Structure formats: structure tokens, C-alpha cells
Amino acid sequence: MIEIVTNVMNFNASSQNANRSDKKFINTFIYLLTPFFIITAVGMGLGLFMYDAAAYAMPDYTLTGIIERLISYPLGMFTTLLFYPVIIIILLGIWAVRKGILLQPEKHRKFLTIISIAGMLVSIAGVLPVTLIGVDMWSPDPVVGGVLYGVQILIGVFGGIGYAALFGLLSIPLSKKPGIITRALAAAGKRSLTCYILQSTIIAIILSEPLFGLGGRIYAAGAALIALLAWFIGVLLSVVLEKRKQAGPANALFRRLIYSRKV
């Protein structure tokens, strides 16, 4: 996906008029969509706070539940793109690619430092009230709780941008003398789609009720360990494929569907 965006963005990146037009385009979209996303996030937060959020988030791995998700997921992807601030993130990513902020992080070290610190601080500040509610240390009224949940949804965007900037900074020294861990993570990054599908499948098999069914018998720490195990398996597979100079199966299929040629 990054490769596609990079190719599109670099097509006419040298044109100053195009850059000015893109900046105006991105600013217009942000100004128009931000109020909409705020209203939507607050509304969603009210719904999650007033109803059983845990039950709402718990997937149903029965055959009926799987069929329902196969039918509802295409619509779900559209609504996620529409109602979450995904479009704003995409536009910011386009702008960052045009500026070469993450492609040449050494030239933007100061900017990335400011963004990483500010983004993570804002994200932490936004999630603290929701954390207090989650551990039963605070019980606000439904309206206040819903607003806080909605704010937390939006604040996650700042956290994601902060982490992206932090990883850009970390790539500066790591790219000079990449060690075993760095090469393994790079291999997984090249096969991110394959890793995502593999990890999701492993987690579903372990947690789903029709199969191993551990989802209803473990706590957050156990779930985190299972997620870490799934992630490690994905990285290990990526290392093996990297040594064989093979692309991830899902990534190869995705590129073939886009470019209509063997990759």
C-alpha cells in the first residue's frame, strides 16, 4: 500500500503548483471533515458507554457469526472509512510522502521529534479518563462518559501520528547498521499484509469458541501474550521468506490484482 501511494505521490512531486494545490486540497478536506468526525466520534462514544462495550467488541466466531461478518464487512469497511478520521490520516500521509518526511527522516529530525512527543502526550492525555472509567475508579454520567469515549477515538489519531514520527526517528540509526532484529522487522514490514492475515487467523483460532475457545477464559495479560505469539510467528515466517527471496503470499496476490502481472 505504501508503495502504491509513493508511486502516485512521486508522479508529479517536482511541480510546485501541484504541491500548492495539494496543500490547499488537504487543508480543505481537514477543515470540512473534522467537525463531522467529532460529532460522529461523540455519538459512537455515547453508544459504547451506555451499552455493553465489551459485548459489542467481542466477535462471534460461530458459523452464523462468521457468515454475518462476511456479509457485513464490506459495508463495515465503507462506514469505517466514512465515519472514522481515516480520510484525514490518508491525506496527512499523502502530504508526508510528498515532503519526504519519513522517506528521508534525517532531513526532518527536529520536526519528527516535535510530532512524536506531542502526538504521544496528547494520546496519553486523551486515554487517561477512559482508563479510569475502565478500572472503575471514576463513574461519570452517560453524557460525559460518552464524550470522553468519543474524544479517545479521535485522540488515537494523534497517537498514531506520534508513533509514526517516532519510528521515523528510530530508523535513522538503525538503517546505518541494521542488526538481526532490524532485518527481521524489515522483512515483516515488506510482508505486512501477509503477517496481518496470518496473525488474525492465529488469534481467531486460539480465542474462538468453536475451536480452542480461550477467549472467554483468559484475561488481558493472556490475550496480550497470545497476540505477541501470533506476531512472533508472522515475523519468523517473514524471515524465512526473506532468505528465500519470496514475497508474502497475500502481498504477491494483492500486487498481481493491482498491476495485473506477476510480481
Layout of secondary structure:
Blueprint: H1 2-9, H2 16-50, H3 53-57, H4 63-83, H5 86-99, H6 109-134, H7 142-174, H8 180-190, H9 192-207, H10 220-243, H11 249-259
What does this structure look like?
This protein is mainly alpha-helical and 263 residues long. The chain is 78% helix and 0% strand. It has helices spanning 2-9, 16-50, 53-57, 63-83, 86-99, 109-134, 142-174, 180-190, 192-207, 220-243, 249-259. The longest helix is centred in the first third of the chain and has 35 residues, at 16-50. It is globular, with a radius of gyration of 21 Å. The two termini are 14 Å apart. The model is unreliable at 1-15 (pLDDT under 50).
Notable traits:
11 helices; mainly alpha; globular; 263 residues; disordered N terminus
Task: Summarize this structure briefly.
This protein has 263 residues and is an all-alpha fold. It has helices spanning 2-9, 16-50, 53-57, 63-83, 86-99, 109-134, 142-174, 180-190, 192-207, 220-243, 249-259.
